[in-house]
Amino acid sequence: MRYERVIELLRLAIHLQGSRGGLTLADIQDEFSVSRRTAERMRDAVEVAFGPLETVDADTGDRRIRWRLQSRALPPFLRVSPEELTELETLADSLERTGLEERAGGLRDLATKLRAALRRHSAEEFDSTLETLMEAEGLAMRAGPRESLEEGLLSLLRNAIKAGRVVEFGYLAQWTGRHSHQRVQPYGVLYGNRAFLVGRTDWANDTQLWRLANMSDARITDETFERDPTFDLQRYAKRSFGTFQEEPVEVALRFDPSVASDVIAFLFHPDQTVSENDDGSLTVRFKAGGINEMCWHLFTWGDNVTVERPSALRQRLAQMCSALAVHHAA
User: How far is it, in rounded angstroms, from Cα 308 to Cα 314?
Assistant: First the structure.
């Protein structure tokens, strides 16, 4: 067997053991750019080398078989490179810059544990390489919110979500400035420019959002709740262009040929499609809510973008531009 094939099988074994939901044959095909038959051979070879694979229960409606590896033979083959640790440190710096110190601290603790777990004769060389990489990489300054969260809030919410317990907290409404007391069934935390708690409460039929920076004196209660098994956080997030939840609408944006290369490299929405027009312009289509957040982003493209649909987005963008023009002209 060629050396490259051995490396690929080891990579597949790591993916099979590290995957939470298991891998399908299609996942293996995509990851390694191989045919279905080759994916089957690779799966079988991993099983021969590292032990039996177990099947994972799939989500409702997904009939594809998923496999996962539980093997004690794999850990000695795992290696952490200085480049990988640099990624953790850089991400921690990025989170800290946006005010998420608790998440940044968690990543730095992970990086420390990984360094402590390394068993290398060339430890000094490894640390020297890591230090060189950290000195050579940095974060460009970018304007954005830097919010202050109460110490321990993220850990508290994570514990409540895992235990299925209701949380209580004081809340300052962003737009009205009104203080209130909330009792929420926590479903997850949604990260964007700002962090939000996603949950349900007795006074609303639909899932609601609470900005973490506006929460105070949070505590976990003894009251338990049954999580809605049909709720999917990723699907919920895709309903909106940002974090504001509105009824999703069909969006079509046409970008001038002069910015085509930038558009190709830009992700507007996870489910977007991009088509090229006869004049070299590109049309991006997706379905999402959050008209105001779309407008805020479209400002950055100036007159290189034209809103083809919906009309509500085009009108709202025109209103914002007119208001800004009047404000700054004055």
Answer: 8
Q: What angle do CA 86, 89, 95 make, to 5 degrees?
A: 140
Answer for the pair 210, 185: CB distance below 8 angstroms, yes or no: no
HSE, CB side, 13 Å, CA atoms: give it for residue 214: 19
Contact 65, 57 (CB under 8 A): no
Domains of the chain listed by start with CATH number:
3-77 (1.10.10), 82-136 (no CATH), 153-238 (2.30.30.520), 249-329 (3.30.70)
For residue 200, CA distances in Å to 159, 169, 223, 289, 311 come to: 17, 14, 14, 20, 32
Q: What is the pLDDT of residues 233-251, one digit of tens each?
A: 888 877 777 666 678 889 9
DSSP 138-202: -----------PPTTHHHHHHHHHHHTEEEEEEEE-TTT--EEEEEEEEEEEEESSSEEEEEE-T
Is the sign of the CA dihedral 29, 32, 38, 42 positive or negative? Answer: negative
pLDDT digits (tens, 9 = 90+) for 121-133: 455 555 666 565 5
Distance CA 141, CA 211 (A): 24
3-state helix, strand, coil in the chain (%, to 5): 45, 25, 30
Q: How many Å apart are CA 87 and CA 66, to the nearest integer?
A: 29
In 3D space, the residue among 217, 225, 151 whose CA is nearest the CA of residue 184 turns out to be: 225
Greatest Cα pair distance, the chain, in angstroms, is 75
- pLDDT at site 92: 79
Q: Residue 217: which residues within 8 A CB-CB, separation 6 or more?
A: 150, 169, 170
